[in-house]
Predict the 3D structure of the following.
Amino acid sequence: MRTVCNDLSPAALELRTFLGKALPEFHAEWGDDRSFAARRAWQARMNEGRWAAPSWPVEFGGRGLTVTERVECDTELARVGAPIMAGVLGLQNVGPALIMFGTYEQRELLPRILSGDEIWVQGFSEPGAGSDLASLLTRAELDDDVFTINGQKVWTTNGMEATHGFILARTDRDAAKHRGLSVLLVDLQVPGIDRRPLRQITGESEFAEMFFTDVRVPRSALLGGMHDGWRVTMETLGYERTGVINMAARLQREVEKAVAQLEVSDPAIRDQLTRRWMEGKILGLMGARALAGLQQGQPPGAEQSIIKFGWSLAQGKLGETIVDAAGPGALVGNHPATFDFLRSRASTIAAGTTEVLRTMLGERVLGLPRET
């Protein structure tokens, strides 16, 4: 029975000790720098302690943590304000995919993903295939053990900094749209790839669009079976089961921090803050319930989608409330409240659009008829 430090697991306690030394050393070198280079340096430091991907199996450089332990460790990282690591998609999605489906040679990429020496991205969304991923048009044609890729990807996170891509492409144009896809592991330095930054409303460019023109990769780049890319992709996305639980817990902490720090006398804004606190608390409780279900062996289900839907709406409302509390001065210059507000607008798109979630919940959870 655990009784030390609010019942933290031994893994979370070990991480707390590690962060107590590693984070001050990092800040001594990088200060408050949140650039990609700083995040990459932080990932290398985390990897030195085997904390870059603690839920990976031990034999592949992780710690084999359970879902509960992983959530506790994520909470510790948030509590101390640890930087986000640079290669998040490689750590959360690509690495697990290599562990599940990769050949021996492909798994040799794992140490470089952990260290941040290689930054991997997902080449999924396209101009006409974002939420409807199976409608993608990028083609990969196989001839003499070489794939030739042609097409376009868009909204690729960290696309300008990436070294490699986990690219979903159509390899059978005659098959049903879910069945004719394959996953290819692509070195983004090969000829034929043009990357362009996408400028966001905040002024950042954390996304890119990518154009593939007669890009040639060997058959050994195929991950999983030929035309089996949909299954590989769905199992990969389902690997990080704690994602929405962490969303809920993180939002609850953000709301509690806002309520504690903002000095508000306007009763209307105080009412808004109360509502945000209630929304954050409810989402946190829903996340705890979902976590309890995963601990008992229940598969991820509708509750995770409901949490994601609630998180999207609550995150946007929180951004609005913070701007209201800051007053007219927030609209002048580079006020942090304005930046937070602009960033919050993406919450209705990130990790699944709100419109698609509404439809999915209506049909699959509430049993409403499909629109004809």
Q: What stands out?
A: The longest strand covers residues 146-157. Strands lie at 120-123, 139-143, 146-157, 164-170, 181-187, 193-198, 207-218, 222-223.
